[in-house]
């Protein structure tokens, strides 16, 4: 007997649009739950309850909790990258781009520490459960977004006439500034979790980091 291969019917444009709208709404609800209660509060049951749908209906859009959380993380990263690029593009000059980057990173996450923790902390704390990011997600979703950010920074700071070595220096400097911003937010997250404020004010730390990297960019 010949094997019959079932072919999936292609979704019409209208059905595809409704499907993507539903996925977007689900992610938006998951993000609200995350910001209010942390990553532990994001479950299929809590998201389905907010949307007044069953968990089984949710599986139509996300086959597992892992898939939903990965989509949530990439959405959060999209928001971050878009925010940083918008800030850098309106900076006074390329020499101020790194200070602008650091402050924009801080502004984006200071009131959304649960979002920051989900993007940058959870996968290393939970490498074997649903919060870990698979290699395909990192390669296809995460890396292109961060590369685009550094492409913009490189162009803003170096310009089209810069040499290859200058471009490499600028890119490394931009990456270091981003790491500094990430480190600052990590410490602020630790301080928040332990209700033990850092000895220096946020503004003092931002001024110091921004000055260091803007001075380096002018050299």
Textual characterization of the structure:
- 73% of the residues lie in helices and 0% in strands.
- Mean pLDDT is 87; it is low at 1-7.
- With 219 residues, the chain is mainly alpha-helical.
- It folds into two domains: 11-63, Orthogonal Bundle (Arc Repressor Mutant, subunit A); 66-218, Tetracycline Repressor, domain 2 (Orthogonal Bundle).
- 26% of the residues are buried.
Q: Output the number of helix runs.
A: 10
Strand content: under 5%
Query: What is the distance, rounded to the nearest whole angstrom, between the alpha carbons of the first and last residues?
Result: 75 Å
* Gyration radius from CA atoms, angstroms: 21 Å
Query: CATH class of the largest domain, anyone?
Result: Mainly Alpha
CATH fold call of the largest domain:
Tetracycline Repressor, domain 2
Low-confidence stretches: 1-7
Overall mean pLDDT stands at 87
Q: Could you estimate the helical fraction of the residues in percent?
A: over 70%
Could you give the count of β-strands? 0
Indicate the overall shape: globular
Q: Helix/strand/pairing class, anyone?
A: mainly alpha
Largest sheet: none
CATH architecture assignment name of the largest domain: Orthogonal Bundle
What is the succession of H and E elements? HHHHHHHHHH
Task: State the domain count.
Answer: 2
């Amino acid at each position: 007997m010949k094997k019959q291969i079932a072919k999936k019917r292609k979704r019409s444009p209208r059905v595809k649009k409704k499907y993507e709208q539903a996925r977007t709404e689900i992610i938006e609800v998951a993000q609200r739950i995350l910001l209010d209660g942390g990553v532990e509060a994001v479950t299929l049951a809590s998201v389905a309850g907010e949307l007044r749908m069953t968990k089984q209906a949710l599986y139509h859009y996300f086959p597992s909790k892992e898939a939903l959380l990965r989509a949530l993380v990439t959405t959060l990263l999209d928001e971050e990258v878009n925010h940083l690029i918008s800030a850098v593009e309106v900076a006074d000059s390329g020499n101020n781009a790194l200070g602008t980057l650091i402050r924009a990173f801080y502004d984006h996450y200071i009131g959304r520490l649960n979002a920051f923790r989900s993007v940058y902390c959870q996968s290393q704390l939970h490498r074997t459960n649903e919060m870990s990011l698979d290699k395909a997600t990192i390669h296809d979703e995460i890396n292109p977004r961060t590369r685009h950010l550094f492409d913009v920074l490189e162009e803003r700071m170096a310009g089209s006439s810069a040499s290859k070595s200058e471009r490499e220096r600028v890119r490394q400097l931009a990456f270091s500034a981003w790491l500094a911003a990430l480190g600052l937010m990590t410490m602020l997250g630790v301080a928040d979790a332990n209700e033990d404020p850092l000895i220096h004010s946020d503004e003092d730390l931002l001024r110091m980091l921004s000055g260091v990297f803007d001075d380096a960019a002018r050299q």
